[in-house]
Amino acid sequence: MRRSALAAVAAIGSASLLLSACSKADDNGGDGNKSAGANAATKGVVNASTQKGGTVTYEYSDVPDSFDPGNTYYAYMYNLSRLYARPLMTFQPGPGEEGNKLVPDLAEKAGEPSDGGKTWTYKIRSGLKYQDGTAITSKDVKYAVERSNFARDVLSLGPNYFQQFMEGGKAYKGPYKDKSPEGLKSIETPDDTTIVFKLNRPFQEFDYLVATPQTAPVPQAKDTGIDYVKSIVSSGSYKFQSYDEGKQAVLVKNENWDPKTDPLRKQYPDKIVVKLKVNAETIDQDVQAGDAIDLGGTGVQAATQAKVVNDASLKANTDNTYGGRLVYMAINNQVAPFDKVECRKAVEYAVDKVSVQTAEGGPIRGDVATTVLPPDITGYAKADVYATNGNKGDVAKAKEQLKACGKTTINTNISARSDRPQEIDAATAIIASLKKVGINASLKQYPSGKYFTDYAGVPTFDKKQNIGLHMMQWGADWNSGYGFLQQILHGDAIGASGNTNLSYLNDKQINEMLEKAIATEDDATRNGLYAQIDKRAMDLAALVPLTYFKVLLYRPAGYTNLVSTAAFSGQYDYLNIGTTKK
């Protein structure tokens, strides 16, 4: 849910990135943010500092899907988890597109492909240790992948790429059911520092796949399945001091983290506090007061936006950028009558996208969208299959499609996340548009932490509740058409729960084109296929693109090393944020 042709894979110097700053902090306690200017963190590092100590506080309006690195799929948790969970590869701290560059993390260097991209070999760094001082081995990385991808009845929240692409992946039942010592045979660990992935078909972007937190090591002896979230064993620069489910997590320095084995992390603050279930407006107030960072990274609320964009001094502390994200409404083609393409097309024509854009906060929060792929994702091609005058919908064309579907009216429900006010407002605007053409939709609200596991992502629940429409926001897992499209359009992404393919689309042609694309070595050919997949999805009316999301973040004074990264949807990179406050 996160991320040009493949971004360059480059090694990174220990301090060079964070010190190439556009604004320098006063290490004696100045805030450094006031003079940085609007969008400064999209161009460089704001308030750069090597000052250690203090507490960095994050606040979130709900609860995350999970702190477990193998059981999460929100961009902000991918971002945060790197503090305590080191994947094989990760993204370098850098502004904008610089942040899309892959760099080795647990691994010594990028993967070595062979057999046309069907086999990938990684060597992990020597001297790596967990928080208890025990050695991290390649077997722990293998186990982490096995538990996160193959025990979907226990851990269902993350993507399942490995399950789909590993040789024998469909048959392997995961480590909780399969007690054989060798585990999944297509992941080999010939020694404690080597791991080899044998795929069932070529995967030319595999380095991006191992950058997910699912490759962060987990010691099998310490794994407690779904309860592992209560006692996560750290491989990063911070470890959990306490975890109060649904309320707060506190991280402190991991004394067994060795900077010699880690050119990325700096371990600046003494403590990191994550506060949960904080009112969204309260978060805005705390951010403006310099007391917190908005963990979710989706931007300020409507009232705060109106305040900051109309005050030059406040606007100077904001960052407004694309994040490789699409705000859209999935049309569930398994819920009647949206199993008929004409009924789905009626929805496409009915929606007044300008009213949705206005409800989300206007152009500063996103441009009107007409494609599945956003313009800042490789493979995008400009198109508008359901063009309407001024993007305000076309009642006549919508009714024409409704008639072709054999309907004059439709009664359905639309799901949205209860803790996301802008999503609720957008859904409300859509309901008004649909009503004009005879589609009566009622709003159903569910918490974001359970949206995919218990509600929108559960096919049986959707059918029972007659939820034919789902509000959704999606960011690329990595910056390519495959990294964006696979988990929301491929039939293999559909499961009993935890779905992100909320259209429940299982189209043979799209599935085959996605597989062909990821096996294609030539960048231009691969990107051309992504554009074709986008068009096919729109021809099938699988979803209604609403806006190409733009984030509007407020930079809290006193926090250091703030940089907005494309790798995590324009959020600040959480890896090395510090504070000048004592």
Automatic annotation (TrEMBL):
<dbReference type="Pfam" id="PF00496">
    <property type="entry name" value="SBP_bac_5"/>
</dbReference>
<dbReference type="InterPro" id="IPR000914">
    <property type="entry name" value="SBP_5_dom"/>
</dbReference>
<feature type="signal peptide">
    <location>
        <begin position="1"/>
        <end position="25"/>
    </location>
</feature>
<dbReference type="InterPro" id="IPR039424">
    <property type="entry name" value="SBP_5"/>
</dbReference>
<protein>
    <submittedName>
        <fullName>ABC transporter substrate-binding protein</fullName>
    </submittedName>
</protein>
<keyword id="KW-0732">Signal</keyword>
<dbReference type="InterPro" id="IPR030678">
    <property type="entry name" value="Peptide/Ni-bd"/>
</dbReference>
<feature type="domain" description="Solute-binding protein family 5">
    <location>
        <begin position="101"/>
        <end position="493"/>
    </location>
</feature>
